Amino acid sequence: MVSSRKVDSLSRVLASREHGLCSAKPSAAVRGLWPRMALETLLTGHRGCVNHVQFNESGTLMASGSDDTRICLWDLQKSTPVLAHPSGHTANIFCVRFMPATGDNQLVSCAGDGQVRSHDLSTGNYTVYRHHTSR
């Protein structure tokens, strides 16, 4: 089992790397964790770079948002897509989130088109709640 301390350390190193602040070397704990990380399953469904993933509360489903402007919903036990949802966005999706207390039927997404959308996965409908005027 990986301690939460090691995971926190890894998270800090990865966040620093993402923001270009990678002058410090990772700790020995983090260096020991990286070799144990391996690809477990390849999920195929998007036609573009995946920018964000979100797990539902029970950990059985994962939503992903991509440059292809689609949201995919994945059954993690079977490693298969449950749904490929056309989001209505016209630019790359940067964030997807399951809304709590909706039975995993509601997702919120935001994209490079400046829109935040709420998606009802049971009907396929979406609502634009807010439109930003710039990135």
Explain this structure.
The chain is an alpha+beta fold and 135 residues long. 16% of the residues lie in helices and 37% in strands. The protein contains 2 helices and 8 strands. The chain has helices spanning 4-18, 28-33; strands at residues 50-55, 61-66, 70-75, 80-86, 93-98, 106-111, 115-120, 125-131. The strands form 2 sheets. Strands 1-2-3-4 form a 4-stranded antiparallel sheet, with no helix packed on it. A 4-stranded antiparallel sheet has the order 5-6-7-8, with no helix packed on it. The model has no long low-confidence stretch (mean pLDDT 80).
Helix-strand blueprint:
Layout: H1 4-18, H2 28-33, E1 50-55, E2 61-66, E3 70-75, E4 80-86, E5 93-98, E6 106-111, E7 115-120, E8 125-131
Antiparallel strand pairs: 1-2, 2-3, 3-4, 5-6, 6-7, 7-8
